[in-house]
Write a structure and sequence with these properties.
This protein is an all-alpha fold. The protein is built from 6 helices and no strands. Pfam families: PhoU_div (PF01865).
């Protein structure tokens, strides 16, 4: 099937929608961390729904790439942006799933506070991404965004290392340590993906300058 005339939302509108979904997902995951056990299943299911909606947006980008004669940036760059946004969403969804599957509640201090510090970094990353994605038409103007995302990723690294240290120092039973370590590592991977997203936007800005 040949390429057809471009229709529907623009690439920028779809990417903006993907970024907005990340804010919703981080909010749900934060609520899930603090929710009583009986409410967690509904929150996890809602997080799955948001992840599914984000998947549909990612597929929309791919379809649009296949149908478009002309794209605002290189096709590979647009696909990479959509894929990285989707990766962030998948990892947020995975973290929520693990919290429920592992039945992790009443997480002892200081591990809980350190997990909250990781979540705060992700919250800021998601908010900044959603706030700045409308500026993608002029990626050269987004320098403050990718610099701040890089700084936040460094904060996330520090929180990750501190959390691992306390996991092994607080006398938690080994099985719970393994479960919490899985969650901590997924949150760290998500922070890394946000940094990858910032780097990808910086690369586009260099190409377009």
């Amino acid at each position: 099937m040949g390429k057809t005339k471009d229709r529907g939302p623009s690439f920028f509108e779809i990417l903006k929608a993907q970024a907005s979904q990340l804010v919703t997902a981080v909010d749900l995951l934060t609520t899930l961390f603090n929710a009583p056990e009986e409410e967690r299943y509904l929150l996890r299911d809602r997080l799955h729904e948001v992840e599914h909606e984000a998947d549909n947006l990612n597929h929309s980008i791919i379809r649009k790439l296949n149908q478009s004669f002309i794209t605002p940036f290189d096709r590979e760059d647009l696909q990479a942006l959509a894929s990285l946004l989707d990766d962030c969403m998948d990892l947020l969804d995975e973290a929520g799933d693990l919290l429920v599957l592992y039945n992790l509640h009443d997480i002892p201090e200081p591990v809980f506070s350190l997990l909250q510090a990781q979540m705060q970094v992700l919250n800021q990353c998601a908010f900044l991404t959603a706030e700045n994605m409308p500026n993608l038409k002029r990626p050269q103007d987004m320098r403050e965004y990718w610099v701040e995302i890089n700084r936040l990723e460094n904060d996330g690294d520090k929180a990750y290392r501190r959390t691992l240290k306390h996991l092994f120092d607080t006398g938690i039973d080994p099985i719970t340590v393994i479960k919490l370590k899985d969650v901590v590592e997924v949150l760290e991977k998500c922070t890394d993906k946000f940094e990858d997203l910032g780097n990808a936007i910086e690369s586009i800005a260099v190409k377009e300058s």
